[in-house]
Specification:
alpha/beta; elongated
Length: 660
């Protein structure tokens, strides 16, 4: 008996970007390649001719099954491998593919497919299964204008046909990347064809499912949920795509913020059917986190990590992102004030995804670089390699965000010394660091390297004007401002107001939008310089564009700068107007800053008892009690210096102060 042969069948249109990689991957695995082109205008046909002579041109008639079946008619192999031009066969799958065709009792195989897709700025992968490898029989044909299927047809023709899953045969699919979807307008095309299919056959569940998927990808979650729920009401739980359907329903509810409905769905409908599905635990963790149930959220995320290997037909999208699971666990550990645990989770997240910048940012924040600069750098350099300029620049940006300007500057300077042409945004940031550190000449030198035509040059001049004004160099502020007279942005006009005492005559001042944002940003920058007299002067001049008093923003700004008396004044007014326990907490913090420990304890206890009772608050309250105890003991020792027991107790408390 002759060895069975394989024909690869492709339907293509403008696949020049990926086609050579696709055909190169299948060439060693098959005896024949059949390509049907539906109207390419790029180099698709040129590439195809290098691999096969069996190329056919078919006009596109809004029907994928029609062209798929035409390709099958041209195939002479014993087996058919259906693959798309934006897919690729894994090299290790070639031998597996050849081995499968020796099975005499199997009619077809579901293969494992790894889909690449965009999530924000990241490219992620998710596994699924697709029916792509089957015997070449004339009665086996595709049906459906879009998301065409052949497995159902095989089972209709041959009800006893054996279908197996072959996860050792792996395809990579790049067609779900945003660029590809937009270039080929896949969403609109698929939506149009699916609506037509559903209209002609309302009871076809798989088409309705795919319609829901297209709505979901278009972020039309209510429409998607409607389709998914209809399918769920009629679908047998044994259906191969049922786990994926349940994940989509949960995702819709999550996006719609229907949290209680989502919890009920998980417990009453999803978990009973698929208790081992990874995405169930990830989504459960997310909703519990949103509902402020952190302990339960930790349990779900940990379960997500402990699950056994997942079959591809579960089509998990979230739980396979181990970096994200660990990142969420890191955030929850921080919530419970477990800094060591948080560091462990963030480090694990970075081991799985070195590009997960938020995890590195949280590690740096936990290390408190402003308070412990040397220790921070020592700890970071033990774990991470920052020798490359790009890594050093990233570290510099994150340190800058934490206001650790000296450390950030060192990173920027080291990176710039390794680059022939330093990026202007890094020169700008280095200049800002010098400015924040009071090194005006160094800042001027760096800002002088910026292109006058760029937006960063203008921003640098704004920062210089503000610095000159804050530090009383009015002559320099005036001169720099005169050089920018042609610019009438809200920031430029408000700087003119600060320096001259009035708005430029040509400006049209507004009370809303950009003017409010610009005024607040200027005031925050002035506050950072800790020049209280200048701050009050600026606050008076910018008053028309600033929040009214009292306001939460003022309290938080004053607390950030350590201005307890100013924060207390605003907080007391707010507490008298609102029962919000968070306001009592802020009042406690403002009293604490001023050493009013008894009042701070009084308001902190009220805040905690009335609902603002996060672990962080409990920790701070415990530290406050320690400081109250120390105050009492020091008073006693001042009166009775020979009180040894009191002195010993004082020393013990000082040695174990709770860190907040």
């Amino acid at each position: 008996m002759n060895n069975p042969t394989i024909t690869a069948c492709l339907v293509v249109k403008n696949e020049g970007k990926y086609l050579e990689r696709c055909l190169s991957s299948i060439k060693p695995a098959v005896e024949e390649i059949v390509i049907v082109d539906t109207g390419s205008s790029d180099n698709t046909l040129e590439i195809a001719r290098r691999f096969t002579e069996k190329i056919y041109i078919q006009p596109w008639q809004d029907n994928f099954s029609q062209v798929r079946n035409f390709a099958l008619q041209q195939a002479t192999g014993d087996w058919i491998l259906v693959i798309d031009g934006d897919e690729e066969l894994h090299p290790d799958s070639i031998a597996c593919l050849r081995n499968k065709i020796s099975a005499t009792e199997v009619e077809g195989y579901l293969l494992k497919i790894i889909n690449y897709f965009n999530s924000g700025s990241e490219v992620l992968t998710a596994a699924d299964v697709v029916f792509r490898f089957f015997r070449n029989r004339p009665q086996y044909r595709f049906t459906g204008a879009v998301h065409e299927q052949i497995c159902d047809n095989i089972l209709a023709v041959n009800p006893t046909a054996k279908i197996e899953i072959a996860e050792d045969i792996v395809l990579y699919h790049y067609g779900y990347l945003d660029e590809e979807i937009e270039n080929k307008d896949k969403r609109q095309r698929n939506l149009r064809l699916l609506l037509k299919e559903v209209d002609s056959n309302p009871d076809h569940l798989l088409n309705r499912f795919h319609l829901g998927v297209e709505y979901f990808r278009a972020r039309e979650y209510t429409e998607a949920l409607s389709q998914f729920r209809l399918v769920q009401s009629r679908l047998a739980p044994q259906a191969l795509y049922a786990p994926k359907l349940y994940r989509y329903i949960a995702s819709c509810l999550l996006h719609l913020k229907n949290y209680q409905e989502l919890l009920d769905f998980i417990e009453q409908e999803w978990r009973p059917l698929f208790p081992q599905q990874g995405d169930l635990y990830f989504i459960h963790g997310l909703v519990l986190k949103e509902l402020k149930q952190p302990a339960l959220a930790i349990t779900s995320f940990r379960q997500c990590l402990e699950l056994p290997p997942q079959p591809a037909f579960y089509a998990n999208v979230y739980s396979c992102q181990v970096d994200k699971v660990n990142y969420h666990l890191g955030e929850l550990a921080e919530y419970f004030q477990d800094r060591e645990g948080a560091l462990k989770y963030y480090l694990t997240a970075l081991q799985h995804n070195p590009n997960l910048v938020p995890a590195l940012a949280r590690i740096i924040a936990i290390l408190e670089p402003r308070k412990y600069p040397q220790e921070t750098m020592t700890d970071l350099e033990k774990v991470f390699d920052f020798s490359e300029p790009s890594a050093r620049l990233l570290l510099g940006r994150l340190l800058f965000n934490e206001k650790a300007y000296q450390l950030a500057l060192a990173c920027f300077e080291q990176a710039l010394s390794q680059l022939e042409d330093g990026p202007e945004n890094i020169i700008w940031l280095a200049g800002l660091c010098q400015l924040k550190l009071g090194n005006i000449l160094a800042a001027q030198s760096l800002f002088g390297r910026l292109s006058p035509a760029g937006s960063l040059f203008l921003s640098a001049q704004y920062h210089l004007i503000l610095w000159y004004w804050v530090y009383g160099h009015r002559k320099h502020a005036l001169q720099t401002l005169r050089n920018l007279q042609q610019f009438l942005s809200p920031t430029a006009c408000l700087l003119h107001l600060l320096v001259y005492g009035y708005l430029p005559p040509t400006s049209s001042a507004a009370i809303e939008g950009e003017w409010q944002q610009a005024a607040w940003e200027l005031l925050v920058q002035i506050a950072e310089y800790q020049k209280l007299k200048k701050f009050w002067q600026a606050r008076k001049r910018l008053k028309p564009w600033l929040p009214p008093e009292p306001d939460l923003a003022w309290v938080e700004l004053y607390l950030q700068q350590g201005w307890g008396a100013q924060a207390e004044k605003q907080a007391r007014q707010l507490v008298s107007q609102s029962p919000d326990p968070y306001l009592k907490y802020l009042l406690a913090k403002s009293c604490w800053l001023q050493g009013k420990l008894a009042e701070a304890e009084q308001f902190m206890v009220k805040a905690y008892q009335q609902g603002y009772n996060e672990p962080r608050v409990a920790r701070e309250l415990a530290r406050l009690y320690q400081e109250l105890a120390l105050s009492v003991l020091r008073t006693e020792l001042a009166i009775n210096p020979q009180h040894q027991e009191c002195a010993q107790l004082l020393a013990r408390i000082e040695a174990c102060l709770i860190e907040v």
